Give the backbone structure.
Amino acid sequence: MRIKKRSNTMILVMTVMAATLVNGQRAFAQEEAVLLSFESGTDSGNLPRAGLVFGSAGNLYGTTSEGGSGGGGTVFELSRRAGGGWNETVLYSFSPKPEYTFDQVSGVVFDKAGNLYGTTSLGGIKNHGRVFELIRQADGSWAEKVVHDFDNNGTDGYTPLGGVILDSSGNLYGTTAYGGTGGCASTACGIVYELTPKPNGVWAEKILYNFTPGAGGTNPYFGLTFDTADNLYGTTEYGGVDGSGVAFELTPAGGGVWSESVIHSFGSGPDTGFPQSLTFYNGNIYGETANGGSGDGNVFELSPAVGGGWNETILANFPYGNGDGTPELPTGNVVFDASGNIYGVSQGGSGLNGTVFELTPGQDGTWDETILYNFNDLGTAGADPLGLILDTHGNLYGTTQYGGAYNAGTVFEVKP
């Protein structure tokens, strides 16, 4: 893999332009703007632990896992302000404040009616997590409806971490990191579930798959994605042949039963562990691992093999340690632009607080890595970025868990 590096100068303000030379190669100017700095102890919320989505009008929607008027995190909207800048509107504040600091609110998704859905990893009646729906009211406010309360009862899953997706009929699909009947010690191994709305307003849960110890993978920490035939794909954090997680497919097998196939088991050499969210592009699957490669993760491609199965290709390796300013520990998802370039975020970088990177396909099958933005070592522009989304102009948007003006996280934009 050939690597081209771009870096920015140290940032002392929230919006910067940087153009430097690194290892004799030109680093084109990149602009990063902090659209919002979260602040602890305010109604705005703080510490986002999930990425963003676009609304139909181009506004940004996201969540925080702490703060807000109820102390339990928020769902927020960012809309463009006339003359420049962005306005934040807190749509909903969760209550009460989480009992444990590792509680998290997932990202949200829209249904066709404009309602929002997501998960909290704790909370709910049993304090084992819930799926929520936010419904816009006639006066413009938003009301929460609990779609499902998870229960550590030996059958249901619990601790949903990855949010939900919707099919064309409005059914919800997701994972829980623990629970089910799979028998992974005291926590069980996690499930894949479906939630179906009924005419009386109640949602019915159906467990599509119980993970069990062994080659099939255990403990799905991230959410799901569909292929064009509405089969489900996801990853597990553990299990598989070498215990480092798998990428899996769930396919309807008739009679309401779903069958799991492991399409890749992560494990050895440049391909080690802990895969994250998956993305489909042109029939292939792309994702990241938080460990492995040259030491601190990689970006991989899974492509259908002739005669069945899937072949893995490592597109980029992130070396252990970042004395040379390279990324390490990629986080969240990858996104594609119209030209087939890949964008993602990582920890590490020259500022030690993360990077936004681009992978560009070369003619010889290799991928060129470019650091579009280094979050600075002061953290004023954010620290520890999460996933990305891309607008039609090629601008990238994401969140950081920490950093910003109050060290409580940010929403940022990077213009390649």
